[in-house]
Amino acid sequence: MEMPNGAALPRELVAVSLVAGPHEVARYAELTADFNPIHLDPAFAAGTTFGRPIIHGTLGLNLVIEAIERTFGGLPDDVSVEVRFVKPVPVGSAIRAGGYLRSLEAGTYEIYVETASGERAVEGTCTIGRAPEHRNKGANAT
């Protein structure tokens, strides 16, 4: 999806929520062929640092991509995403993804995935549209 130069950017990304229960995590494992027992096997996960199964980090990241798609009606052609996975999320948690416009000039959003209690699991930035060095700088552009 091509974004027109000078198109207004919304102040927030549409928030997207999901309860990441065992069924959703198992379906995501099938989709990605990631069957790591830390996500799927409660007995295995009980013996790890986490003490119980955790969702795939990329499952949350995909929720961010869905928030971008819902906001712009598709995934913009020139979108870049940089994230950090900052906290594991136990299977069964409700998570929400979204973002806030941080810089209109750069087209940069602060993006996140958080639990129902507001704890951040994934955070980072995404830039919508062409890289700032390629954007139209207005009538005074050279």
Automatic annotation (TrEMBL):
GO terms for biological process: fatty acid biosynthetic process. InterPro entries: HotDog_dom_sf (IPR029069), MaoC-like_dom (IPR002539), UPF0336/Enoyl-CoA_hydratase (IPR050965). Residues 22-114 form the MaoC-like domain. GO terms for molecular function: (3R)-hydroxyacyl-[acyl-carrier-protein] dehydratase activity. This is MaoC family dehydratase. It comes from Xanthobacter dioxanivorans.
